[in-house]
Each structure stands twice: as C-alpha cells, then as structure tokens.
Amino acid sequence: MFQIDVVHHIQTLWICLAGLIVLSSFFSFTETAFMSVNHYRLRHLARHGNHYAKRASVLLDRPDKLLGLILFCDTFADILASSIATLLAIHYFGAVGVLIATVGVTFVILIFGELAPKTVAALYPMRITLYSSYPLWILLKILSPIVGLVNFLSNGFLYILGVRSKQKKLDHFTIDELRTVLTEAGRQIPGNYQRMLLQLLSLEKTSIEDIMIPRNEIVGIDLSKDWSEILEQLKTSQHTRLPVYQEHIDSILGILHVRDALNLFAKNELDKSSLKKVLETTYFVPERTSLSQQLVEFTREKTRMGLVVDEYGDIQGLIAIEDILEEVIGEFTTDAVASAQKDISAESTGNYMLDGSVNLRVLNRTLQTNFPLEGPKTLSGLIIEYLEMIPPANICVRIAGYPLEILQIKDNMVKSVRLIQGEHDGRQNTKRNG
Predict the structure, then answer these.
(1) How many CB atoms lie within 10 A of CB 396?
(2) Contact 95/73 with Cβ under 8 angstroms?
(3) Interior angle at CA 137, CA 135 and CA 139, nearest 5
(4) Phi and psi of 161, rounded to 5°?
(5) Other CB atoms closer than 10 Å to residue 261's CB: what's the count?
(6) pLDDT tens digits, residue range 233-246?
(7) What does the angle CA 400 – CA 403 – CA 406 come to, to the nearest 5 degrees?
(8) Of 71, 84, 123, 426, which has the maximum CB count within 10 A?
(9) How far apart (Å, rounded) are the C-alpha atoms in residues 331 and 311?
(10) For 413-428, b where at least 16 C-beta lie within 10 A, e where not — what string?
(11) Verdict on whether the full-model pTM lies above 0.70
(12) At residue 425, does pLDDT exceed 70?
C-alpha cells in the first residue's frame, strides 16, 4: 500500500524536494547575510526611515531568536529533503537507493543549499538582509512558540556554561580601526575628505609641542621698547593677536587683540598705559596636551591662542587654534604659506634649500617626505640629535633615507640645509662625509 502511494505521488515528491532545497538555500542566504551585514550602515538606513532596515535591526537585536528561527527552519528543510530523496531513491533503485540518496542529497544541499547561496550572501549582505527581513519576521511570528522552546533549551545550556545570550555587546571601533576603515574606503570617500578625517583622528596622537611656534619665533610686543617702534609694529603686524610682555617673553602681561588697539587709536587714546588696560588674560597650555584635547579646551575657554609651558612653568612656545585646524585641513592662512616658502625653497636643480628651524611636520606635509616625528621637532634638532654633536658645515648626512647637505652653522644650530632630491632610497640613517 505504501509503495503504491509513493508511485502515485512521485511528481509531488519531486516538487517538494525541489521546494525544500530552495528553502534551504534561502535560509543559508539569510544566515550569512544577517551575520555579515554592516550593522552601522543598517542603523544609518533605519534612522533615515528605511522600513526594511528597521525590521532587520529589530531582528538583529535578539540574535539568539533570529539564529534559532533560521537554523530550525534550515535543519527541518534539510532533514525533510533527505527523507523525501530517500523515498525517491528506494523507488528507483531499491535498497541501494539509501546510499545513493545519502550521497546525492549531501552534494546537492552542500552546493545549492550551502556553498552557492552563502557565497552570494557574503557578496551582497545588505541587499539580502533588507529583502529577507519581512519573510523572516512573519516566520518568527508564526513559529514563535517553537523558536521560543528551542531558545529556552539552548540558552539553558549556555547558562550552565556561563554565557548570557541577552548580554548585548556593543561593537565599538578603536581609533586605529577607524583609521583602517577610512584608509580602505577608497573611492567611496573623496580624497580631500579622507585626508581630513585621517588627520582628525591623528590629533589624539599629536601633542602641542609638535606644532607650536617655538619660543624664539614668537612675535610679540615688548613694552620696554620705544613707543614709535611699537606703533610701527602694530601698523605692519600680520597677526590679529599678539602677546605683550616687558623685556622678555617670561614677563608676559597679556594678549592684545589688534582690533582693540585700533579702537584706541581711532579715539586718539592709544599709549602704553591704555594698551595694558585692554589686554586679555594670558591662557597657558601644558606642552604635553594632545591636539584633540586642546581643541576642546580652546572651545570651552572661548579663546583662540595660548602660551605653551613646560612642567616647570617656563614658556616654550605659542599655539593658536588655527595651528590645530591646519593639521586637519592644511595650511589656509597666507601667513603660514609665507612661512613655509621662507623655510623651504626649490632650486633649479630640483633640490630644496631648507632653513634649519623648519618644523618637521611642515616639511613632511609640504614635500611629502617621511622624516621621523618622535623626538626633535625641527630639522636642525633632528640632525644634531642623530649626529650627537653640532656638525661642521659642508658635510652630508643621510637621515630616513634622505641625503642632507649641511651648508651653514650659526649660534650652535644648523642654519641651512640642502635636501638632495632623486637619491632617496628608503634606507635608514647612514652617515657619510662630504
């Protein structure tokens, strides 16, 4: 009787077998897609009103339920398909059909129910996740009691092992991971935006002393000078804010906004006494502060400039908010460009004449070089530290693979250097006499 029923329903069994393999393929699709989808992009779509993304996010909020549903349905489809295939094989081949069915179903499900769909799902996880969220949501509603029982038993076993499935672990990016994501984004982010974002992430690793204007280059007003010299300095100043001091920078009196001096000049009230009255309080910055933290501090203190001090309270330099912004978006003031042109000049031979006081970060950014930034901040300091002495003029040294010809020494500093282009070979520090 059983044999007769099978014969009469051969076509139905074949249709059911094909349908079950399709179902197995579907659940393999969804399992891989949901587990490999970009959760951050999915949340972004959900926040912007995408209903498919909202439903998929709800499903992913409880991965144990989602996986329980997918694996239950997938396992059920595979086992039922195997049973039907066994019936069909016995009908066609007799007792040996059991072996044939086992081998055949294994290959069919492995290829069409697992490998092929999971490969496609790994390539297009977002699209498959969005469009499969609705049928999975309906199935979860229908099979909720069964899935709940399966999850109860599974979670009970995990509880014994000390695993809490309801403890949702937030996947946060570290700064280095974000940098990797931006680097590998390729054409998805315009080059300028990518560079700025990478520079923004680098602010945390860069300290104030790396970019500050050194003490000996601070431009300020010395009230001990003749009034005529001070007036001339105010007339020709290219800065909007200037530190005001008495004889030397350590005797700082405050910060002058040139606008306030102009207002006094318009009222014919500008003199040393009135100038002191409009000075802003000096804001001091520890030299080890990171650029990201200092940017926050500038905003909180409602100020744009500060004097950099070391651990002993001695003034080491000056930092302005524009200096930090230039680390992100590049040089945008004519002052900075003029300074870079003064310190770095191209020769007709293709080499570059460098001022020894040029900041290494500026040098790397301008000429796309790769001088080390740990330690000395200027080219002169780098050369002296590497040679462990103040070198004589007219010798050559190779640092970070770049040939440097030392041309002039002045006041125990390297005053001028020639960077020889075309000879950079990537070798690390090696010395040679000129």
Answers:
(1) 16
(2) no
(3) 70
(4) -85, -5
(5) 22
(6) 888 888 889 999 99
(7) 115
(8) 84
(9) 30
(10) bbebbbbbeeeeeeee
(11) no
(12) no
- Which residues, including other chains, have CB under 8 Å from residue 328's CB and lie 6 or more apart? 196, 199, 200, 203
| Dist CA 193 CA 176 (whole Å) | 18
Report the distance separating Cα 361 and Cα 379, nearest Å: 10
Q: Tell me, what amino acid is at 197?
A: L
The upper half-sphere exposure of residue 278, i.e. CA atoms within 13 Å in the direction of its Cβ, equals 19
Provide the phi-psi class of 426: left if phi over 0, else alpha when psi is between -120 and 50, else beta: left
Predicted confidence band at 430 (pLDDT cuts at 50, 70, 90)?
A: very low
Q: Letter for the amino acid at 74?
A: D
**pLDDT-based confidence at 337, cuts 50/70/90?**
very low
- Evaluate the CA torsion angle 345, 351, 353, 357 in order and state its sign: positive
Burial 18-51 (b: 16+ CB within 10 A, else e): eebbebbbbbbbbbbbbbebeeeebeebbeeeee
